[in-house]
Amino acid sequence: MKKNGFTLVEIVVTIVIISLLAVLLGNRISSSNNDSKQRLYDSKIEVALSAARSFGTNNLDLLSSSECYDIEISRLISLQYLASDSTTMYEYLNPIDNTSLRSKVICIKYVGGKVEATLK
């Protein structure tokens, strides 16, 4: 008797193998996406810190070496030291969870002849 087609066992084994490959590939893509979002977040924070240092350099009279001059990201945007996200107008979004970063506070100090900025 001639055999035409595949047996049920062959089909099930093939489906299981394809499913395992899909799961492994899906996890890798998801992990890569999360890494990209984290790098984008780190970059946005570094841009905000740079804007805060620019603000501090232009306003040295407000700074001290011992105490923080606190400034919110929203203030840096309104003073045009920092550009908001182009798609959201006045918003500065966290790319990881799409929450606003506008209320994040940056500490600015003048230490050792240079302006330092750190995220609080």
Write the layout of secondary structure elements.
Layout: H1 8-58, E1 69-72, H2 73-78, E2 105-111, E3 114-119
Give an account of the 3D structure.
The chain is an alpha+beta fold. The chain has one domain (8-119). 48% of the residues lie in helices and 14% in strands. It is built from 2 helices and 3 strands; from the N terminus they run αβαββ. The protein has helices spanning 8-58, 73-78; strands at residues 69-72, 105-111, 114-119. Strands 1-2-3 form a 3-stranded antiparallel sheet. Strand 2 (105-111) and strand 3 (114-119) form a beta hairpin. The longest helix has 51 residues, at 8-58. It starts with 7 loop residues before the first helix and ends with a strand. The mean pLDDT is 87.
Question: How many domains?
Answer: 1
Share in β-strands? 5-15%
Q: Could you give the distance between the termini?
A: 78 Å
Residue windows where pLDDT falls under 50 for at least 5 positions: none
The gyration radius over C-alpha positions equals 26 Å
SS element count, helices: 2
Structural class: alpha+beta
Give the rounded overall mean pLDDT: 87
The tally of beta strands, per DSSP, is 3
Produce a short descriptive summary:
With 120 residues, this protein is α+β, with helices and mostly antiparallel strands. It contains two helices and three strands, in the order αβαββ.
